[in-house]
Each structure stands twice: as structure tokens, then as C-alpha cells.
Design a protein that fits this description.
It contains 7 helices and 7 strands. α4 links the parallel β4 and β5. Bound molecules: nicotinamide-adenine-dinucleotide (NAD).
Length: about 270
């Protein structure tokens, strides 16, 4: 199976989405997908030139917002700018993650902070900044966070993985706290879900060949950003209107088990 082409859906017509880490890779593909389905899209990133470029490629209904998710005030400004521009905020995609790749023995305070701060606290901060607007969304708000298979099993990169592992629990807690039975008078519920990608061909793999990992993937290929964007769009849309607090692996089957893929490549049984 190849990656999904952009379908003729308009699930986000009239809605506004804010996507963080949207200048490159998965975030850019998510912004592109939501925009193709009719959303007004704000592409938030700490790389303003690339974010502007990505927004310009989309054209009407797309704006770039300079924003570092480690900066609460910058996030407040970004949300204000989006609401001034488009009048509302209905969908939030928290997509920033930073990995440095050292082993556990080298995970010192600096490496911990460097990864946990944007990946976990940045996600918390982004949701805190956007929540007041999401709670007033005419459709009910939707938040999708980009987790990782690294947060669901041992794939190394332990600092980054710990940050990603917290996101499913964050989604569960917030799913309950901001559900239809709990929100206040005049507020709409907000759904919170996580996508957990496996290896996705983005610039983070520029110094390694992601296809070297294909034998780990039962589906015989690594992911493309569009694979993740399709899942994010589903979770953010009304097609998932009864889905909240879940983590959806989008991983070519790697969590289902790589053993058969190894066997097929004549590497022999693994047990
Ligand atoms: N590529 C993969 O194999 C893979 C696998 C699983 C999960 N993920 C996750 O997917 C997400 C996107 O990764 P990607 O591969 O597209 O990476 P990428 O480097 O292509 O894109 C990440 C974007 O985030 C921006 N960014 C980084 N720090 C930021 C900050 N503090 N504030 C605002 N923007 C910031 C970058 O400028 C960049 O535009 C991350 O959360 C990553 O952990 C990626």
C-alpha cells in the first residue's frame, strides 16, 4: 500500500487549525492536509522563513506564525494572532518533538531539558494557550498530539521516549477533564488524541537512510509524512467525534511485531 493521496473531503470547511512544528516534515504535511480539506491553517514554527514558505505554498487560508513552544508568551501571541486572523480556533495539532539520541548514561540535565522542554512541556504549554479558544469552538475543539512508537515500547533514545510516553496519559486526563459531561456553562467539549508514528521519512533522517529500517516494518516500507497527516485529519475531524483519550499508532505494523519480516528476509527465527 502506498501513502494516501489527498482525498476530495472537506471535513474542515469553515474551521481553523493551528499546527505547531509546521514548517517541515510531518507538521507541514498535516497543515497541507487540513488545508486541502478546507481549514484555515496557521503554521506555527520557530523557523519563520520556512513556515512562511510553507504557508505561501498553500495560498489563501494559510498563515505563518513565528512561535517557539518553549515560550508561553509566544504561544499566547500566536493564538491571539490566529483568532484575530480567522475568528476562532477549532483544531490544535501539537507536533513539536526534539530528540538528541544519546544513551541513558549520557542523559544529563542539559540533554533531559533540551528534549523534555519542547517535546512534553511545550505540548502542555501549547494546549494551555489554546484551550480557552478551543472550548468555544462551534464544533467542539479537537487536539491531536504527535507522539511516537518510542513512547509505547523500547526503541532507544530514552529521554525523547519518556517525553513521548507522557502524551497518551496527558490525552487521557484532558479527554476526561474537558469532556461533554465536565465542561462549564457555555463551553463546548474538547477531544484529545495522540498519533504515534513509526519511522517517517523527514529531514530528521537526513544523516541516516530510513529505508535501512524497512526490515522492521511488516508493511514493507517506512512512513511518509502524508501517512501521519491522514491519521491526524481523521482524529481532528467529526469522523472521530466519539473518539477521545486514545493513542493511535501509525506505524506500518512495527508494534504488531517485526519477527515475521525478519524471517522472510532469511534471518531466521528470533526465538
Ligand atoms: N520523523 C520520524 O521518524 C518521527 C517518528 C515518530 C515521531 N515523530 C515526531 O513527529 C514530529 C515531527 O517530526 P518531523 O520528523 O516532521 O521533524 P522535522 O524536523 O521535519 O519538523 C519539526 C518542525 O518542528 C519545528 N520546531 C522544532 N522545535 C520547535 C519549537 N521549540 N517550537 C516551534 N517549532 C519547533 C522545526 O523547526 C520543524 O519545522 C515530532 O514530534 C517528532 O518527534 C517523528
Amino acid at each position: 500500500m502506498t501513502s494516501p493521496a489527498t482525498p476530495a473531503l472537506a471535513r474542515f470547511a469553515g474551521r481553523t487549525a493551528l499546527v505547531t512544528g509546521a514548517a517541515h516534515g510531518i507538521g507541514r504535511a498535516v497543515a497541507t492536509r487540513l488545508h486541502a480539506e478546507g481549514a484555515n491553517v496557521a503554521l506555527a514554527d520557530l523557523d519563520p522563513a520556512a513556515a512562511k514558505d510553507a504557508a505561501a505554498t498553500l495560498g489563501d487560508r494559510a498563515v505563518a506564525v513565528e512561535c517557539d513552544v518553549t515560550d508561553a508568551e509566544a504561544l499566547e501571541r500566536a493564538v491571539t494572532a490566529v483568532v484575530e486572523q480567522f475568528g476562532a480556533l477549532d483544531v490544535l495539532v501539537c507536533n513539536v518533538g526534539v530528540a538528541t539520541g544519546e544513551g541513558f548514561d549520557a542523559l544529563d540535565d542539559a540533554a533531559w531539558t533540551f528534549q523534555l522542554e519542547p517535546t512534553l512541556h511545550g505540548t502542555v504549554r501549547t494546549i494551555q494557550a489554546a484551550l480557552p479558544q478551543l472550548l468555544t469552538s462551534a464544533w467542539g475543539g479537537a487536539v491531536v498530539m504527535t507522539g511516537s512508537v518510542n513512547g509505547l515500547a523500547a526503541f532507544g533514545n530514552v529521554g525523547y521516549s519518556l517525553a513521548k510516553a507522557a502524551l497518551p496519559n496527558l490525552a487521557q486526563n484532558l479527554a476526561v477533564e474537558y469532556s461533554a459531561t465536565r465542561v462549564g456553562e457555555g463551553q463546548r467539549p474538547v477531544r484529545f488524541n495522540v498519533v504515534a508514528p513509526g519511522t517517517v521519512r523527514t529531514r530528521v533522517w537526513d544523516d541516516q537512510d530510513p529505508d535501512a529500517l524497512v526490515p522492521l516494518y511488516p508493511m514493507g516500507r517506512v512512513g511518509e509524512p502524508e501517512d501521519i497527516a491522514a491519521a491526524v485529519a481523521f482524529l481532528a475531524s467529526d469522523d472521530a467525534s466519539w473518539v477521545t483519550g486514545i493513542t493511535l499508532p501509525v506505524d506500518g505494523g512495527i508494534l504488531a511485531g517485526p519477527a515475521l519480516a525478519f524471517q522472510e528476509r532469511n534471518r531466521g527465527p528470533v526465538d
